[in-house]
Q: What sequence folds into this?
C-alpha cells in the first residue's frame, strides 16, 4: 500500500464510484441491492470528500484513509470487471465526461459472483462512516463502541485465539507486594526504558522468578504509558502450549495486541481479515509480518516483552524465525525488546550485544515473600515463637540461593509441620540451591503418600493427568476426571471433588490460574521432575487416563449417539465437561498404554452409537458439520489414532480395507491425514488396498498427508505401488496444490522430487500451484516452485490472469520482483481484459511496482488494453501524479497515444480535473 496519500486519490475513488453507479441504469431487478449499495458508497465517499476540504489530516489519519481508498478502488475495479459478464457498453464515441449506456445480457444472475463484492462494499461503507464521524467529531462514541463490540472482537479472535491478558493478570496477582523493584530501579532497566531501539535480555536459572519479573515489567509499562501512543505487547511462552507457539502464531498475537490498543482496527488488519475470512484461508507468514510492520508504525514507540524463550519448544528454527522478525521490526520502527530465558547458549547468542541483567531471587524479595506467608505457620500460636519466626526467614533466605521457587517449596513444606520442633528440625536440613529442587519435590511426594488413602488417590490421579495431558485442563475438566469410577455408566456428582481439595491434596505442586481456571504445575521444573520420575511414582498413569476417558465416553447418556442440532451438542459439552477432551485424546492415551487390544477398547470401537457421539466431539471443528451425522466405524477411528494393534484385532476374514465412512474416507485416509506412520505402513501392506481412493471431496490419502504436513507418511505413500501423485480432488486441486496452499515447505520440496509430478497442473479455475502461491503472497513457495525445471511462469487461469498480472494488479511489490527474476517471464502479456501488468500497476497507482516493471527487459511502455488505453492514460485518468512522472521518464513513451475514441492521456487527466497531471503532460 502506498502511504503517499493526497486528496486527489479520494477524488478518483469518488469518480469511479459515480461512474459505476451510472452503469447500473437499466439493470435487471436482481441487481437492485448491489446498485443501492454502490449508491451508498458513492454518497459516503462524497461526504468524506467534503470533510477533507474542511481540515488537514494527521499522518495517522492519512495512512488510515489511504487504506480505505485502496480498499474502495479494489472492490470497485472488481465490480466493474464482474459487470462485464452481464452487460456490455454499446458502441459509439466516448469522452471524459460521458459514459455510454450499458446493454444488459439476458443471462441468469449468479449470486455467488456478487455476494462477496456486496460484503466488501458494505464493509467499506462502514469504514468510511466511522472515519467520517471521527473527522466531524459526531457519533464517534457510538460507532467506535459498536465496532469494538462486534467487528473488532471478530477480527481480534480471528487473528489469534490466545489471550495473554488473563495470564498477565494471574502472574501479577501472585506477586508479593514490593518485590521486583530491584530490576525496575536498576540502571540497566532505566537505560533500556527511555532510548528507542533498545533490547534487554534477562537470563536466569530455573525458578529464579523470571515470569513474575516479566509480569512486573508489563505492569510497570502499562502504568507508565497508559493512554499514550506507545504500544505494549507481550508473550508468555509455555511448555504446555506448544500448538500456540509457532513463529506465525506468536507474531499474530503481537499484531492482535497492538491492534487492540488502536481506537479502531487498523485498515491493513481489516484488509487482511477481509481477504482471507471470506475464503476460509489463513494469512501467510509474510502477510502477518507485513501487517505487523505497518501496525507498529502507528505508534511513536512499541515495547515487546517475551518471557521464557526457552519454553518455546516448537523448534529452534521456529524460534530463530520469530526472533528474526522481532529484531527486524526494531530496525524499521521505534521498538524496544525485553526477553527472559534460562541460560541456553543458542538463545543467549542472539542477544550478545544487548543490555543484559541476570534475574535471581534477591534476598530482600525472598524475605518479603517469607514474611507474607509466615502467618500460615502455627496459625494462632505464631506470636508465641518470635525467635522461630526470625529463624524461618533467615534460614529460608540462605537456602534459596537465587531461586524464588525454592522459597515457595520450603514454605509449603514448613507449613505442613505440626510442631515448633518439627519446624526447627526442618530448618536445619533445608535443601539448598538448584540441587535442592528435586529433594523438595521428593519431600512433597512423601507428604502426598502420607495422606489418608482418599486424598492420596485423588492426588495420584491429578498428578497423572497434569503430567500426561495433551493440552492444559480446566478445573471443571479435571474435577470430572477425578470423579470417574471405572466401570460405572453414569456421572455421580456426589463424588466431584472441590478445587481447593485437589490443590491441597497435591502438596502445593499444582496451582490454578484464577482468570482462565486452568490447572497447571507450579513451575516448569515440576513438569521436568515428573517427566523423569513418573514411571516410578505413578507408573499406571497412562492406563488410568485411557480407561477413565473410555469409561466416560461409554456413559449411558452417550447412547443417544450423534446430536443433530448445535444447541443439543453444546449443551452436552457444557454438562459433561470432560467430553471434549476425552473424545479428542482417548486414543492417544490408549496408544501410550498397554490397552490397545483390551476389551474396554475393542468394545468401545464396536459400539456404533457411542462411537458416533465421540466422533462428533472429536471432529466437530475440523471436518464434520454439527448437523451432519458422523458414520465413522471402529476401523476408521483406530486408524485416526494410530491404534495399530486394535486395527489388526478388528480385521475379520473377508474384511474390506477400503471401506468408507459417509464422507468417503478410508482408514488409510484417516491414518495418513493424522500422521500415523506405523498405521499407514500396516494398511499399505493390506491385500487389495486402494492407495488412490478418493473421499467425497475427491481427496486422497496422499493429499491429506501432504496438506497436514506429515513428511514421513508422504514418503511412505510416494513409495507405494501405483500411487497417483497428480490425482485431483473435486475442484481440480492436486497434492502439490494442497502442500502449497497450506504452506508446507518440506512437503513441496518432497513432492517436487517425486517421479512424474506435474508442476503445471491446473485446478478448476485454471490456476497452477505457482499461480496460487503468487496470488496469496507466499514468497517462500514461489521460490521453491520457480526452481522446478519445467515450471510455466506464464500459465494463465480461467480468466486469463498470469501470476505476474495478478501480482501487479493487487500491488504485491515483493512478488512482482520475484517473478520478474524468473526466466522466460512475459512482461507484456495481456490478461483476459486485454491489460498488461504495467497498465494495472499504473491504474492502481502503485509506484513501486511501476518502477520494477519499467526496469524489466523488453517492457513495452506503450502497450494498450482492449479499449486502446496505455499505462500512461490509466495513470493520468486516475490522477496518479507520481506514476505519471515515472512513465514520462521511460524511454520511448508515447505521450500522444490515443485510445479507440481518440482520447489521449492529457484529455483523460483534464476530464478528471487533475491539474497537476495536466501540467506534467
A:
Amino acid at each position: 500500500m502506498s502511504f503517499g496519500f493526497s486528496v486527489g486519490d479520494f477524488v478518483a475513488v469518488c469518480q469511479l464510484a459515480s461512474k459505476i453507479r451510472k452503469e447500473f441504469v437499466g439493470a435487471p431487478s436482481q441487481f437492485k441491492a448491489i446498485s443501492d449499495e454502490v449508491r451508498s458508497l458513492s454518497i459516503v465517499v462524497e461526504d468524506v470528500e467534503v470533510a477533507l476540504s474542511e481540515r488537514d489530516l494527521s499522518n495517522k489519519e492519512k495512512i488510515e484513509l489511504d487504506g480505505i481508498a485502496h480498499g474502495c478502488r479494489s472492490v470497485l475495479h472488481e465490480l466493474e470487471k464482474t459487470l462485464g459478464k452481464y452487460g456490455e457498453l454499446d458502441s459509439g464515441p466516448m469522452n471524459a465526461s460521458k459514459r455510454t449506456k450499458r446493454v444488459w445480457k439476458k443471462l441468469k444472475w449468479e449470486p455467488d459472483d456478487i455476494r462477496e463484492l456486496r460484503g466488501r462494499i458494505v464493509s467499506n461503507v462502514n469504514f468510511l462512516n466511522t472515519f467520517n464521524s471521527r473527522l466531524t467529531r459526531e457519533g464517534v462514541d457510538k460507532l467506535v463502541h459498536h465496532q469494538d463490540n462486534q467487528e473488532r472482537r471478530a477480527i481480534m479472535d480471528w487473528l489469534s485465539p490466545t489471550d495473554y491478558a488473563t495470564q498477565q493478570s494471574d502472574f501479577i496477582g501472585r506477586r508479593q507486594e514490593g518485590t521486583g523493584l530491584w530490576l525496575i530501579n536498576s540502571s540497566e532497566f532505566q537505560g533500556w526504558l527511555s532510548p528507542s531501539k533498545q533490547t534487554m535480555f534477562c537470563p536466569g536459572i530455573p525458578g529464579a522468578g523470571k515470569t513474575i519479573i516479566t509480569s512486573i515489567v508489563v505492569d510497570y509499562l502499562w502504568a507508565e504509558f497508559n493512554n499514550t501512543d506507545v504500544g505494549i505487547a507481550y508473550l508468555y511462552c509455555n511448555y504446555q502450549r506448544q500448538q500456540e507457539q509457532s513463529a506465525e502464531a506468536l507474531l499474530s498475537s503481537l499484531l492482535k495486541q497492538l491492534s487492540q490498543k488502536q481506537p479502531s482496527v487498523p485498515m491493513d488488519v481489516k484488509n487482511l481479515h477481509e481477504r482471507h475470512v471470506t475464503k476460509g484461508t489463513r494469512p501467510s507468514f509474510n502477510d502477518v509480518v507485513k501487517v505487523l510492520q505497518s501496525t507498529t508504525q502507528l505508534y511513536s514507540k512499541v515495547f515487546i516483552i517475551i518471557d521464557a524463550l526457552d519454553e518455546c519448544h516448537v523448534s529452534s528454527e521456529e524460534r530463530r524465525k520469530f526472533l528474526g522478525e522481532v529484531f527486524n521490526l526494531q530496525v524499521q520502527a521505534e521498538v524496544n525488546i525485553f526477553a527472559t530465558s534460562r541460560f541456553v547458549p543458542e538463545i543467549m547468542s542472539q542477544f550478545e550485544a544487548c543490555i543484559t541483567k541476570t534475574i535471581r531471587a534477591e534476598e530482600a524479595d525472598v524475605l518479603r515473600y517469607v514474611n507474607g506467608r509466615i502467618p500460615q505457620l502455627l496459625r494462632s500460636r505464631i506470636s508465641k515463637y518470635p525467635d522461630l519466626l526470625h529463624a524461618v526467614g533467615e534460614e529460608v533466605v540462605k537456602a534459596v540461593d537465587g531461586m524464588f521457587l525454592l522459597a515457595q517449596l520450603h514454605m509449603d513444606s514448613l507449613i505442613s509441620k505440626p510442631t515448633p520442633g518439627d519446624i526447627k528440625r526442618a530448618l536445619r536440613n533445608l535443601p539448598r540451591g538448584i540441587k535442592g529442587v528435586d529433594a523438595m519435590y521428593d519431600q512433597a511426594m512423601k507428604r502426598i503418600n502420607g495422606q489418608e488413602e482418599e486424598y492420596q488417590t485423588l492426588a495420584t490421579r491429578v498428578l497423572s493427568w497434569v503430567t500426561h495431558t495433551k493440552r492444559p485442563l480446566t478445573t471443571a475438566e479435571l474435577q470430572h476426571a477425578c470423579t470417574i469410577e471405572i466401570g460405572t455408566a453414569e456421572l455421580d456428582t456426589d463424588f466431584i471433588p472441590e478445587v481447593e481439595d485437589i490443590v491441597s491434596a497435591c502438596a502445593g505442586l499444582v496451582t490454578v490460574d484464577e482468570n482462565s481456571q486452568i490447572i497447571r504445575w507450579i513451575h516448569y521444573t515440576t513438569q521436568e521432575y515428573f517427566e523423569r520420575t513418573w514411571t516410578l511414582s505413578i507408573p499406571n498413569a497412562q492406563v488410568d487416563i485411557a480407561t477413565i476417558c473410555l469409561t466416560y465416553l461409554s456413559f449411558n447418556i452417550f447412547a443417544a449417539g450423534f446430536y443433530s442440532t448445535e444447541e443439543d451438542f453444546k449443551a452436552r459439552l457444557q454438562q459433561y465437561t470432560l467430553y471434549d477432551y476425552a473424545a479428542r485424546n482417548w486414543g492417544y492415551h490408549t496408544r501410550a498404554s498397554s490397552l490397545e487390544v483390551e476389551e474396554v477398547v475393542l468394545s468401545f470401537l464396536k459400539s456404533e452409537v457411542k462411537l458416533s457421539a465421540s466422533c462428533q466431539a472429536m471432529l466437530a471443528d475440523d471436518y464434520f458439520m454439527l448437523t451432519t451425522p458422523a458414520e465413522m466405524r471402529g476401523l476408521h477411528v483406530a486408524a485416526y489414532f494410530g491404534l495399530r494393534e486394535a486395527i489388526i484385532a478388528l480385521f475379520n476374514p473377508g474384511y474390506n480395507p477400503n471401506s468408507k465412512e459417509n464422507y468417503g474416507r478410508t482408514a488409510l485416509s484417516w491414518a495418513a491425514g493424522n500422521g500415523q506412520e506405523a498405521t499407514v505402513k500396516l494398511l499399505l501392506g493390506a491385500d487389495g488396498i486402494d492407495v488412490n481412493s478418493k473421499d467425497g471431496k475427491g481427496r486422497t490419502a496422499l493429499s491429506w498427508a501432504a496438506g497436514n504436513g506429515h513428511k514421513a507418511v508422504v514418503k511412505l505413500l510416494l513409495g507405494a505401488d501405483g500411487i497417483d501423485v497428480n490425482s485431483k480432488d473435486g475442484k481440480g486441486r492436486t497434492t502439490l496444490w494442497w502442500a502449497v496452499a497450506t504452506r508446507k515447505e518440506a512437503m513441496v520440496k518432497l513432492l517436487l522430487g517425486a517421479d512424474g509430478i506435474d508442476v503445471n497442473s491446473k485446478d478448476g479455475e485454471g490456476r497452477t500451484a505457482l499461480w496460487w502461491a503468487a496470488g496469496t503472497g507466499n514468497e517462500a513457495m514461489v521460490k521453491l516452485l520457480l526452481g522446478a525445471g519445467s515450471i510455466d511462469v506464464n500459465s494463465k487461469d480461467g480468466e486469463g490472469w498470469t501470476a505476474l498480472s495478478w501480482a501487479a494488479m493487487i500491488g504485491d511489490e515483493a512478488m512482482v520482483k520475484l517473478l520478474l527474476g524468473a526466466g522466460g517471464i512475459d512482461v507484456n502479456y495481456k490478461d483476459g481484459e486485454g491489460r498488461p501488468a504495467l497498465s494495472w500497476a499504473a491504474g492502481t497507482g502503485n509506484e513501486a511496482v511501476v518502477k520494477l516493471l519499467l526496469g524489466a527487459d523488453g517492457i513495452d511502455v506503450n502497450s494498450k488494453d482492449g479499449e486502446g488505453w496505455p499505462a500512461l492514460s490509466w495513470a493520468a485518468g486516475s490522477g496518479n501524479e507520481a506514476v505519471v512522472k515515472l512513465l514520462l521518464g521511460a524511454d520511448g513513451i508515447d505521450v500522444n497515444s490515443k485510445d479507440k475514441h481518440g482520447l489521449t492521456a492529457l484529455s483523460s487527466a483534464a476530464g478528471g480535473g487533475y491539474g497537476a497531471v495536466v501540467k506534467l503532460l
